[in-house]
Every structure is written in structure tokens, then in C-alpha cells.
């Protein structure tokens, strides 16, 4: 049975901590390097529901994408939700390890998993890591579809293939425009609009898109050189697809679990590796507006 330090060393080869952004907080949050590890749980968020699941599972190690503490703290008192998480973990000898922006830019990384879930062929990173001579690491991915789909069909595919959330998929742009190339980025993606514009893709799928950046991006697209084409051949500006943050990152948990499984097999560790299916997206319900008019929202039900 491997020790925690050996498992962490293996995870660090997949997601080198030095590749994390300067503001990020990755690595081991709690855990004894000498403790033995036999069962591992992967999840997006280090919240109490997930920690309770790890306890029930008798896991020795919880690996999450999001950090528990991104900034410094002066207390882990169990009267705070994060302190309660730390207490529960330590009481049950469960280590917590975080792979965040170092997993985003890894090869394969968070956006490769997202592209895989959507059945897209990855062409290159959206924002390549200049230190990677192979040009495979970096933020986001530029992808191709095997067969062109309309924006409406591609949104339906995303809604079907990503884990179900209350939000579903929001779309900006002409639903009948054809999509051949897509940029994807797991998690909040509206800082990548310049790169998406430069990539000349037909659609961008990400999460957490806000009104002003999205609205200005769509307005700019209408005046820029690159345009997608609708089914009748008319040029249309590129489309935005906004999914739930959690749903865009969850496919990474399955990828990461498979990567650790493979390492465990190779080293004869016999680890049992699990992926949490608990939805930890904070949005729990969605009330659709009344039937929108075709001109204001052509994705709405026919009226
Ligand atoms: Zn995230």
C-alpha cells in the first residue's frame, strides 16, 4: 500500500504544482505524508457534502479541483464551514489535495476532459503555455467537430453530455449558425474572449459568462472579420455557450481518476479510485421565462 507522499508525488507528475498560477493555492491541504492510502475520491469542490461522502466511502485521500483556502486564514475552528471541513478530514484520517490551475493547463487537462465529454477533437491549446516545446499545454482548447452542427444542436449535445445541472446551457448568437470549430475552457472563461476572437472559431463553450463581457463580445463579433455561416449560407457572428461551472470541470474528475488508476496499476498499488457524482454547483433550480418571441430568443419553444 503506498504512502500519501508517494501518491502525491505521482499526482505532481500529472499536474506539476509549479505550473499553477501565482495567485492559486494548490497542493496538500491536510494529511500525514506517512499515512497509507488505499482509497481515493475525486471531486470538483471541497465542500462538506463531498467530505461526508469521503468519510462514508472510507477514503484516505480526497483530491479536488478547487482549493479549500485560496487566501490565508487565521482559523480552522469548526464554527466556520471550511474549518468544519478540515476537522472532519483530520478526524477521519483523510488527506485533501488540490490540483487547480496546474490541472487546467496540463496535458491532458481540464479542458481536454471537457472536449472529450463533448466528443470534440482537440487541435491545440487556446492559450498555449510558451514554456511547452510541444505546444500541448495551456489554457482552454481549440477543437473540431467531426460533422458540423448548428449552434442549437451543439447546445443540445452539451446539455446531454455534461452532467445535469439546474442551469443547463445558455446560448448567445444565432441558433441556426453552423459550428465546425469550437473553443472550450472549463470553469470561468470570460477572460479568454481576446484569445477566442483570435482563434477564429465558430463557438465558445465555457462557464460563468457575465452580461457586459458577453454582450460586448457579441456586439464586437458582428463587426469582425471572422464569421460563422448559418444553414442558408448567411454569415453570423460566433456563438457563446454558457454551462454550469461545476459541469464544465466535472469531466476532469473522471479523466484524473483514470490517470491515477493507470499509475496504480503500473506500480502495483491496488488503489481503489472513485469519482463523486454529487452535484456541488451552487444553483439548484431554474425557472424558465415565459415563451420568448422568436426574434428575442429563437431557442425558445415555438409559439
Ligand atoms: Zn473552477
Automatic annotation (TrEMBL):
<feature type="binding site">
    <location>
        <position position="245"/>
    </location>
    <ligand>
        <name>a divalent metal cation</name>
    </ligand>
</feature>
<comment type="subunit">
    <text>Homohexamer.</text>
</comment>
<feature type="compositionally biased region" description="Low complexity">
    <location>
        <begin position="285"/>
        <end position="296"/>
    </location>
</feature>
<feature type="binding site">
    <location>
        <position position="249"/>
    </location>
    <ligand>
        <name>a divalent metal cation</name>
    </ligand>
</feature>
<dbReference type="InterPro" id="IPR036069">
    <property type="entry name" value="DUF34/NIF3_sf"/>
</dbReference>
<protein>
    <recommendedName>
        <fullName>GTP cyclohydrolase 1 type 2 homolog</fullName>
    </recommendedName>
</protein>
<comment type="similarity">
    <text>Belongs to the GTP cyclohydrolase I type 2/NIF3 family.</text>
</comment>
<feature type="binding site">
    <location>
        <position position="66"/>
    </location>
    <ligand>
        <name>a divalent metal cation</name>
    </ligand>
</feature>
<feature type="binding site">
    <location>
        <position position="65"/>
    </location>
    <ligand>
        <name>a divalent metal cation</name>
    </ligand>
</feature>
<dbReference type="InterPro" id="IPR002678">
    <property type="entry name" value="DUF34/NIF3"/>
</dbReference>
<dbReference type="GO" id="GO:0046872">
    <property type="term" value="F:metal ion binding"/>
</dbReference>
<keyword id="KW-0479">Metal-binding</keyword>
<dbReference type="GO" id="GO:0005737">
    <property type="term" value="C:cytoplasm"/>
</dbReference>
<feature type="region of interest" description="Disordered">
    <location>
        <begin position="284"/>
        <end position="303"/>
    </location>
</feature>
<feature type="binding site">
    <location>
        <position position="104"/>
    </location>
    <ligand>
        <name>a divalent metal cation</name>
    </ligand>
</feature>
<dbReference type="Pfam" id="PF01784">
    <property type="entry name" value="DUF34_NIF3"/>
</dbReference>
